[in-house]
Amino acid sequence: MSTYDEKVAICALNKVFGYHPSLALNLMEKAGSALALFDGSYATLLEGRDAFPSANNIADATGNASLPSENNAGIEAGRGTLSVASAISFAEERVPCSASASSALYSLLPQLVPSQLEWAERELEKVRDIGGRFISILDEDYPAALRECPAPPLGFYMKGVSSPTEVFGLRPMVAFVGTRDLSPYGKAWCQKLVQALSEAHVQPSVVSGLALGVDGVAHRTALECGLPTVGVMATGIEAVYPWQHRQLADEMAGTPGCALVTDYPLETSPVALNFVRRNRIIAGLVSAVTVVESKTKGGSLMTAKYAVEYNRDVFAVPGRLDDVRSAGCNSLIASEMARIVTSPEQLVDAMGLGGPRRHRGEGGSWQTSQAGDPPEKVLQARLVRKYGAGSPLVNIGLAVFQQRGITPEELVAVLHLPYAVILSGIGTLEVDGFLSTDLLQRCSIASRFE
Predict the structure, then answer these.
(1) How far is it, in rounded angstroms, from Cα 190 to Cα 244?
(2) What are the pLDDT digits (tens) for 273-308?
(3) How far is it, in rounded angstroms, from Cα 27 to Cα 433?
(4) CA 82 centroid distance within chain
């Protein structure tokens, strides 16, 4: 037992009690350390029991001849006594799971065996081999905001080139969450809002869940705008889900200030239940959550609810009343769970990040924004400079600016140009970064021109 340290023990405890960290923290407090829980005694505490009594019936339970009494049910090792009664009392604490805490404790205690420490030691070696690390709740660089939450993770895995302090301790953290089925409207607003944060006087880190849709757009835009970004995963640190974001994840892990994090052990698959824990960590790490687009059910609304529970600020981007992808956001606003986002500037001010706005100039350097030409004129000047005044690309770009979500067929009708010219022009403008298209070929102008 002496060959293992407390971090190894907490890694093992995180594996066993990952869905019930409150129970583990209470047991650690009673035992005096995480390491003490793996001496084998706790695993046999409830041996031979057919049922696990509730705290409400503790008097009857401890008075029953078939159950050990308060005096002889304890485990003593110079660190206090953990009795059946006190274990049950711990188990009745409210924890974030559907099963009762008492049932969870009854099933998990037998797993507190010394072999778990052997597993944890091998686990930490594998994590180090792939360039990661494990942050224990007892470590000084464990994020303070996350530690203050109800039922914080016992620890988490992290992969990145920066230290935990550089990632979590140097700037505010804000989350962007939303649907995977992102509309051009949602994509454009996600880009504009993240870009606005990058131009604020106080520049935060952008946190999201590395999923398709809003998450990916938020991470990618943050990287392009020079903001650090943190991806919270629902898998092991070595397995990126979805596979489409493997390159994005590699870029994040290799960029200073950025990181990938998860509280799941290596080789954990992305099953649905895992995303609940991921959403709790997203809400716990940040000071504010912005929901860009969301249906009435989904992980982003769950993240917003956790954020409210943790006393975080919640914002939502409103949408059309008949758009199912905005129904969740509109509901959050109507129920006053979230504040409405009316402009990028309003969001920056509401988050307390205000000050002189900055943007990237022609040479890529940061400049303070000044009042100037309206966005449409700026776009037109860029298009003319790039393609020439008589190019149909100028008219296509301006038409997309004026009507977000316009299709190639609609552009043909508006501009009276051949379909082949429209398709070729859309392709060129997209490659050159002036617009983007979705799976339905709806066109939206790049956020920097709006």
Answers:
(1) 19
(2) 889 899 999 999 999 999 999 998 888 999 999 999
(3) 55
(4) 36
- DSSP assignment of 202-238 equals SPPEEEE---TTHHHHHHHHHHHTT--EEEE-SS-TT
CB-side exposure of 293: number of CA atoms within 13 Å? 26
41: nearest Cα among 113, 94, 97, 127: 113
Instruction: Give the domains, in start order, of the chain with CATH numbers.
Output: 6-113 (no CATH), 134-358 (3.40.50.450), 375-449 (1.10.10.10)
User: Which residue in the block uniquely carries the two structure tokens 């504009």?
Assistant: 192
Exposure letters 238-250 (e unless 16+ CB within 10 A, then b): bbbbeeebeebbe
Task: List pLDDT tens digits, range 198-235.
Answer: 988 889 999 999 999 999 999 999 999 999 999 999 99
pLDDT digits (tens, 9 = 90+) for 112-167: 999 999 999 999 999 999 999 999 999 999 999 999 998 899 999 999 999 999 99
Residue in the block written with tokens 């190639």 = 408
Q: What is the pLDDT of residue 29?
A: 86
